[in-house]
Amino acid sequence: MTMYDRTPNAKKAKQEKAFTIALKKIMAFSEEHEFPMTFNTMHGFVFGLCSAPIAISPTEWIPSLFGENDVISQMAFDDTETFQTLVELFNYMMEQVQDESPEFPQAMRLHDAMSDNFGMQSDLGQWSQGFIDASEWLGDVWDDAMIDVLEEDHTVKSVMLCFFSDEEFSRRLHDELIENDDVTFEEIYQDFLRLLPNTLKAYAFTGRKLYEQQLANNPNLQPHNADPKIGRNDLCYCGSGKKYKKCCLH
């Protein structure tokens, strides 16, 4: 079944299919270098980027996407089509985050058996791992931007979005944190699954509001990295969707 039995958005499904096709080259290349990537993993990572309380340039996040593997990262930068597709995927997700309507991949599928939805063999597990990679990379950024009143709620959302990366870890987490013995792991699983769509939106909302607050306090706030190697007519690295020459170049 598709994610939470939704009716896929035909336009988004077509866009994501085009992304997947365009990224097949680098997916195959990453697998050759023992750092396998999938579209779901990339989607989870890019969602984590776009939801962060700071702007990040491609020259920084693309290497992080590939675990600082210089060979894969260099290919992503050198191959114009791959680089452009990654930037377009970023802008695609950023638009959803800014519209407060982020979604999981349109083609993401769930299995009937609970255990089949955990780990890198599952769509949801792959997405969760990508999200974890982005969250770990941006940990200091979140710590610097976070305010006390939001911290506990943000932690809960993060746990829910990371939950499906590894069943064994999530079971241990359940045993450590859930004091009520009547609340089973299976019940937590069902609750998290049901709440995922709204959790995704709420997580992104927190990050964007913190970013807007920082921007209001510091209008000259710069992206997380130095100016990227990007052409005047390329999409701007800040995620605005505008061409670089009409956005952050000035």
Compose a concise summary of this entry.
The protein is mainly alpha-helical.
Q: Would you identify the regions where 5 or more consecutive residues have pLDDT less than 50?
A: 224-232
Radius of gyration: 18 Å
Structural shape:
globular
Our count of helices gives: 10
User: Per DSSP, what share of the residues sits in E-state strands of 2 or more residues?
Assistant: under 5%
Biggest β-sheet description: none
Distance between the termini: 47 Å
Estimate the mean pLDDT confidence: 86
Task: Describe what this molecule looks like in 3D.
This protein is mostly helical. The chain has helices at 10-32, 39-50, 58-65, 70-78, 80-98, 123-137, 139-145, 148-162, 167-177, 185-217. Helix 4 packs across helix 5. The protein starts with 9 loop residues before the first helix and ends in a 33-residue tail after the last helix.
